[in-house]
What we know:
disordered C terminus
Amino acid sequence: MHRSVAIIIVLGVALRLTALWFVADTRTAYDETSYYAHAAAMVEGRFFVWEDRRPPLTAWYYAGLLKVFGMGPLVVRIANALASSVTILLAWALGRRFGGDRIGRAAALVVAVYPTLVFFGFSLWSEVLYLPLVLGALLALVAGERRAGLLLLSGVLMGAAALTREVGVMLPVAGGLWLLGRAGFRGARAWISAACLGAGFVMTILPWTVHQNQQTESFTLISQSRWMNLYVGNMPRDPGREQRAMPNLGKYRKLGGTLQEREEAARELALEDIRERLPWWPFEKLAEMIPRLLTPNSLLTQRMLARPDKPGAYSGSAYETRADGTGLEWIRLFFAYLAVASWVALLLAGTGGFALAWGRPLVGIFLLFIGLQILPTIITFSFSRYRVPFLPLLAIAAVWLALEGGAAWRAARTRHRAAVLLSVATAAVVVGLRWWTVIGPHGG
């Protein structure tokens, strides 16, 4: 590893620890609260009411930290900030394979300083653990295309990712398609490679799957609330609540007295609604969820713009900063709009980079990973934070465009150039569809 990479990692960790110091008094928000509560309950030997609703690995990881270092969200935040060095290192390794050492170092630098990743790096969301698992699985996959041991490791990391966020079940699908596609879906070697990947995934999730199915009558792969997301993301919303991110979650909780009853009712109602909306349902979901996923807004922007001492949208999750009450409140606005500008720049540059680099060896697997991570959010529902797992891949494509794009553009044919411009323009339009969320009352 080049010395400059080590310097970049130190810089990234220092930025995350500094950002944590800046907002250290902030309460946990949304899912952060339930992940911490679940972990604390395990340490204290208590039952947690949502124990079967979420994949378990995030709570297990936090419980281990609390058991060793003591109770309190700050313990987890510091550990996550330090562990973020792994993400920076993996971004360098993947960037290096994509376009050489210069691309790897530039990608690592972007990941180290990118505002959303800096502030997310010490949060308690499941994406904090999920991100390095995904990047590690991808690195092992591309490094071990014909090496059974690395492919098995990739499958294990994919299984761990699925036990962190259920959308991770799509990762071995992406990896298997890439391995088989590289061989034209022919040849025993490609099928053996895909089988090694699948074996690693299955043996990782199997103990948990068996445990879950001993407690329920219907088959459960990862979590017992698999129909909840489909219901929440597809049932009609009440008038006046159309812009709320999850207005149907309260309805789901009233579908039955037990989790099994709620799941059965949610399945019937959601599938009935989807059938009634066919054949337009896929297009309606695309039109609704892609702009929501790619919105210029973000959780960082929302939490910086909201104020804990002023009632309003997101006030309950607002950051409490060292600048509050000091006359330096403009720092909140700076970080909020820096997050907006950095995301728009990264999305447009990353989209252009992937389009211009089309045909390079790793573009296909990067886009497969991104696409199959996005697909479940279209079918169910999207938040801006669901794009966190593919931000480093966009960073790699963006820095490749900045450093190598000039020569590639000059060598490209007219049709290729047109496709690049069309891709970037499409991304810009999608972002523009929800530009109002940056200053609107509901956010993204």
